[in-house]
Amino acid sequence: MESAKAKTKTQNNVLRDEVKDHLMDSTKVSSIIEAMSNSGGFEATNFSYGVDILRRMLNENSCTKFLSFVAATISTGMRGIVRNMIKDNMFNCIVTTCGALDHDIARTYKPYYAGDFRMNDSALLKKRIHRLGNILVPESSYGSVIEKKVQSCLQDLYDSREKREYAAYEIIDFIGSTLDESSFLYWAHKHNVSVIVPGIVDGAVGSQIWLFQQRHNDFKVDIMRDQTKMSDYVYDAMKTGALMIGGGISKHHTLWWNQFRGGLDYAVYITSGSEWDGSLSGALVAEAISWGKVTEKAKQTTIHGEATVLLPFMYAALKENLRTQESAR
Question: Do 257 and 263 form a contact (C-beta atoms < 8 A)?
């Protein structure tokens, strides 16, 4: 039986961080998020710790930084935050899905609209409107826009260069060079940030590449070179860190490649998934430690929540940190 003395010692070790009320002495986002670290519950502490991890990661020049996200985020206003994070040089490499390319291209030229999760989908079909959650995507803002743009870019590549074989990230970079400043692909091109899309054929852009290849049999996409690019990022890095927004192939590809250097040193994961079904999207980022994809000593946390709610505040706090650093120079 545990002695009274031992019980007291255990209690003292556990009862060390008192829950503190939000005083709201300052309405600065960074101050509010810092106060969350002492608020005790429930996802607030994880969120505050996640922002702190990202601050440390961004402040470390020797760290190669990955940003992974799922496509649906780019259909929303969060596209602007992703764009600004790249514009602010917060990340060195992006890992995402083909749908993110689709939405970025489409929204460069045509609008999407706010809708509702409970709209009548049969009625929307008759109106030629696609629904993505509570985002409405008119047919005229999507397929034909992407087809015209991608086919034009591929033809320009084909006609202007003797080269006939490209890595997917090279095609993506070229497309980004032709878009305007509203596009995250444009800023990735401008700041030499590679956009890696492991499932390049799983979306409209990929389908257009396939269609182009049907008419130009000598045009090839070497997806193994995209893997070599990931290899270069990982093996050349002194340290690595990642902000992963949503799960699936984007999250896994980021984790997968980082295992070959012993794992991520910084890892922040935002998910609305649950871990009880064994899915990768629901898995805590800590689970990746057992695979060697995140280091044992990594600064890491999983934040449960919906990214379009959380990311604006996260970015605002990180931006404040950047301004503080710049003024201190």
Answer: no
CA distance 224 to 197: 12
Q: Map tokens 């005229």 to a residue.
A: 140
The active-site residue, picked from 65, 149, 251, 293, is 293
**Region 174-201 average pLDDT:** 98
d(CA 132, CA 115): 9
Contact by Cβ (8 Å): 88, 322: yes
Sheet holding 239-245, edge to edge: 194-196, 93-95, 63-69, 239-245, 264-271, 294-304
Asked whether the beta carbons of 317 and 51 are under 8 A apart, the reply is yes
Q: Is 293 a known active-site residue?
A: yes
pLDDT at 1: 45
Is the pLDDT assigned to residue 40 strictly greater than 90? no
Distance CA 192, CA 211 (A): 28
Cβ neighbours for 20, distance < 8 A, ≥ 6 positions apart: 35, 38, 39, 40
Query: Count of CB atoms within 10 A of residue 225's CB?
Result: 15
Residue 165, pLDDT > 60, answer: yes
Residue with the two structure tokens 């039986």: 1
Is 28 in contact with 320 (CB distance < 8 Å)? yes
173-207: burial string, b at 16+ Cβ within 10 Å, e else:
bbbbebbeeebbbbbbbeeebbbbbbbbeebbbbb
Q: How far apart are the first and last CA of the chain?
A: 59
Orientation of helix 143-160 relative to helix 168-177, angle to 10°: 100
Whether the per-residue pLDDT at 2 is higher than 90: the answer is no
Domains belonging to the chain, first-starting first, are 57-328 (3.40.910.10)
Strand (E) positions, the chain?
63-69, 93-95, 113-114, 129-132, 135-138, 165-166, 194-196, 220-221, 239-245, 264-271, 294-304
pLDDT of residue 326 exceeding 80, the answer is no
pLDDT band, very low/low/confident/very high, at 124 (cuts 50, 70, 90): very high
